[in-house]
Amino acid sequence: MIQLAVILPTLNERANIAPVIDRLDAALQGVAWEAIFVDDDSKDGTADEARRISQTDPRIRVIQRIGRRGLASAAIEGMMATAAPCVAVMDADLQHDPKLLPQMLAAVESGDYDIAVASRFAEGASTAEWNAPKREKASGIANRIARKVTGVELSDPMSGMFLLRTETLRADAHRLSGVGFKILLDIMATVDEPLRVKEFPMNFSARTHGESKLDRTVAFEFLVGLYDKWLGRIIPTRFALFGTIGAMGVVVHMAVLAAVLHILGADFVFNRYSKEAAFVVGQTSAAVVAMTFNFLLNNELTYSDKRLRGFFPVLRGWARFALTCSVGLLANVGVAAALVRMGMHDYPAAIAGIVIGSVWNYALSSRFVWGRY
């Protein structure tokens, strides 16, 4: 009977698959285990390599996700796909030491603990081989914030290697956000009853091959995860992100509008017709600039799991964004111009136009630019 499922989210880590399986095999002697690789449609054939090995090793399983990305959501899907009573999550990049798994499994199976965590910062742990002082410092800061915000008293609440009973995960799986990359923090902050935790000091190694699932938006995703845990059920997280970037776009919009009105104000004859014409030119220019700003930031942050990469994909994405937002742009400019004709001040009229256009922008850009409903 299977005792343990090890979940390994992957992204472009073909070269790591065989070595990590060898390490699991050596570490888990005497344990009935399986490994589930949850691959976010890697372009280097990671899923194919895992499938190749599974032909001769039935302990190896693969979930290849199409159109979905994200470490936390991958870990949740993998943990929900096993019949094993205990489940562990670890990276496939050879930074986590599978030799800790038997001790972690014994701690949870004993009934004395609900979850076992491999810690980079517990007494006896080492990050010397990691050799990334900036990342280590950033992790330390994130850990302090996580402890203060969530009340989770762990030396390493941002750890990516942990083990728990599958039933514990399933009981609250529907409440997990799956946003960002730190599923342990998500679990610890979601469960109603505090989990009894046992930490194990880990020798955290340097990455050898593959692509890190943590990029330059890591701090942003951490904050997003905290937001989702607090307010995500009141205001959907993605909508909140889109709206926040839209608010930043308002600042850009108003700055461009002011600049254009200032420039045109020196050349136009100040009668009613010329003032309206100057405003239409300024509002249109500001809307286009703000739209481009919003697209780039949304592509980088709001839709980081569906991020468009490369010059031509980004250019096509911008064109689609512009097309889907064109009706919103017309509504924006039309409503604002009408309000100006009715005697409203330029800037309140501009904001009214922005609000009208933003509803359309969010609804259709989510579907036709990044392929999400």
Summary, kept brief:
Helix content is 54%, strand content 10%. The chain is an alpha/beta fold. The protein folds into 2 domains: 4-231, Alpha-Beta Complex (Spore Coat Polysaccharide Biosynthesis Protein SpsA, Chain A), CATH 3.90.550.10; 237-368, no CATH class.
Helices and strands in order, then pairings?
Elements: E1 4-10, H1 14-27, E2 33-39, H2 46-54, E3 60-64, H3 71-79, E4 86-89, H4 101-109, E5 115-119, H5 133-150, E6 162-165, H6 166-172, H7 183-190, E7 197-201, H8 218-231, H9 237-265, H10 272-302, H11 311-324, H12 326-341, H13 346-368
- By CATH, the topology of the largest domain is Spore Coat Polysaccharide Biosynthesis Protein SpsA, Chain A
Task: Determine Rg (CA atoms, Å).
Answer: 25 Å
**Overall body shape:** elongated
Which CATH architecture of the largest domain would you pick?
Answer: Alpha-Beta Complex
> Treating each run of at least 4 consecutive H or I residues as one helix, how many helices?
13
Task: Summarize the amount of helix as a percent range.
Answer: 40-55%
Write structural notes for this entry.
With 373 residues, the chain is α/β, with parallel strands linked by helices. It has two domains: 4-231, Spore Coat Polysaccharide Biosynthesis Protein SpsA, Chain A (Alpha-Beta Complex); 237-368, no CATH class. The chain is built from 13 helices and seven strands. The protein has helices spanning 14-27, 46-54, 71-79, 101-109, 133-150, 166-172, 183-190, 218-231, 237-265, 272-302, 311-324, 326-341, 346-368, and strands at residues 4-10, 33-39, 60-64, 86-89, 115-119, 162-165, 197-201. It has a seven-stranded mixed β-sheet. The longest helix is centred in the last third of the chain and has 31 residues, at 272-302. The protein is elongated and about 85 Å long. The two termini are 41 Å apart. Mean pLDDT is 81; it is low at 209-215.
